[in-house]
Amino acid sequence: MCGIVACVGDSNAPGVVLEGLKRLEYRGYDSWGIASLHGNSISISKKVGRISEAAAALPAASVSIGHTRWATHGGVTECNAHPHTDCSGGIAIVHNGIIENYSALKKSLELKGHIFKSETDTEVIAHLIEEEKKKGVSFARAVGDSLRCLEGSFAIAALDCASGAVIGARKNSPLVAAFDGNGKCFLASDVTAFLQHTKKAVFLDDGEMVSLGNGRPVFTDFSLREIKKTPVEISWSSEQAEKMGHKHFMLKEIFEQPEKIAATMQNRLSGGSITLKEIAPVLRKAKQFDRVVLLGCGTAYYAGMVGEYVFEELCGLPVQAEYASEFRYRKPAVGKKTLAIAISQSGETADTLAAVREAKARGATVVSIVNVVGSAIARESDFVFYINAGPEIGVASTKAFTCQLTALAMLAVSFAAESGKIGEAAVKELVGGLRMLPQQLEAVLQESGRIKEIAKRYSDRRNALFLGRGVNYPIAMEGALKLKEISYIHAEAMPAAEMKHGPIALIDKQMPVVFIAVKDRSYEKILGNIEEVKARGGKVIAIANSGDSHLQQKADEIIFVPKAHELLQPIINAVPMQLLAYYIADIRGCDVDKPRNLAKSVTVE
Ligand code: M6R
Fold first, then answer.
1. Which residue of 26, 173, 299 sits with most ligand 1 atoms within 8 Å of its CB, as the best mutation to test the pocket?
2. Whose CA is nearest to atom 10 of ligand 1?
3. How far apart are CA 359 and CA 340, in angstroms?
4. Model confidence over 292-301: pLDDT tens digits?
5. What residues does ligand 1 touch, defined as CB less than 6 Å away?
6. Where do the domains of the chain lie, and which CATH numbers do they carry?
7. Which helix (H) or strand (E) holds 324?
8. What is the pLDDT of residues 491-545, one digit of tens each?
9. Which of 57, 198, 316, 323 lies at 20 to 30 Å from 37 by C-alpha?
10. pTM (2 d.p.)
11. What pLDDT does residue 516 have?
């Protein structure tokens, strides 16, 4: 949902900001813009289209702010692209979030004579600051006072021509400041924007402002009371945020999964047991919990659905996966004895963050499973389990999903063991299964050529069905989501047995049906569902365990995957789904890493 970058102290600040925005393009990509300070004026370059295609030669400057947009208020036009300015052109603003009371603010500013140029909510911030400055206060004071009038969410960077200052601030949208120790300061929505310059970062909390300049960021609240903050060292490398020879980030990230799942487990497995130091206090009181809720959106929600099966099976407690976006609008039966598990790659998804707050307000203990270190959800949870998947740049989540599933399995096994629901032998068996995952995923990736061939035969279809049962039903959901979000083919998923209650009417010779038909407790039933599709002329693409010759004869297409422990099999089965969606989208010429209308991190509710 929009990316913002600022740089102060580099003689090529516009170039630094441009490069940073290219790395943040996954956050929004309909238009972009950069404002730079040149003597006593601000110059602005804006364009509709992707910043990755920008070859802008921007005049040198040492102070710049920039933005890559995912439109909310106002269409995709050059005029609506950020930065936005006040009437004088002396204040420039970039913004990520939504100003909910912008209409009322705009009306009152117009009555005071302000002339608006765009249809955005953002522009009110520039005019508000201009109005405050008329009182003769400093730029920082004018920004702080203006921000207190705003309702909604924002991360901003504001540039003042008169003082040359750049100020950042956040409320419910991500923002991180950084400095290199040699006079350069940065501000961005995400650390990947400045990793090639520095790894010393300071995450802002809600209600905080930062002033860039003098080589080190200075933090205050909106009333300018100074706040001491400790920098963190980011362990990600800038190379990790590159494609490394792959055609797309998504493909690179799919192929990274064996290594990343190993990273999720690293230092957490010893012999036949699991040690989760970061959540040890939760595990110690495992017996006290009487309910588990899993919260997430999109792919992270499907990870939660898998977690629901795994926790239920191992812990014997009432467990429920919930859409984080719905959670706070219900009256969930959540209290002091509830363990809430929030799942989020970015750690910034607004709905998941709101669900975390709701669960905490109801007295639950919140553990989050997060990829981005220092993100808002990580900071607001009681305990964090970092999945260590490295930067995920492709808008379609892949490696984060399988790492989330791995983390959930480890958490469920530890929880079940601590609460006395499973014994040493079961733990050992599951740990053995976990250890085999990287190698088994390598085997699935070796099937990529075959999956590409299948993709060629089905890339022209307009619809697809994905069916699975039990713990693999969420994987069918995830397979359908992957296909629709990157290839724009309409896809639906359901538990296989539900097909005959209605959706079977859709089956004809044009309909590919992807079945997850591995040898688990539902296998025989799934075979029956496959027959039902075949009898109506549908095309069956089966994900089956290696060596299943019976299914090979029945299915039109078969993708073999190694057999894993039943509760870990979804981790393996997710990968052919990702590859199938990827190759179909690529064959159709879709922009795989930046699908239309989407943004990687949904920081508005
Ligand atoms: O960063 P999060 O994991 O919280 O993001 C949640 C969803 O927005 C995300 O998984 C989305 O569904 C992806 N585009 C799916 O590929």
1. 299
2. 299
3. 7
4. 999 999 999 9
5. 297-300, 344-346, 349, 352, 395-397, 485, 601-602
6. 3-241 (3.60.20.10), 252-442 (3.40.50.10490), 445-587 (3.40.50.10490)
7. helix 324-327
8. 999 999 998 898 889 999 999 999 999 999 999 999 999 999 999 999 999 999 9
9. 198
10. 0.84
11. 98
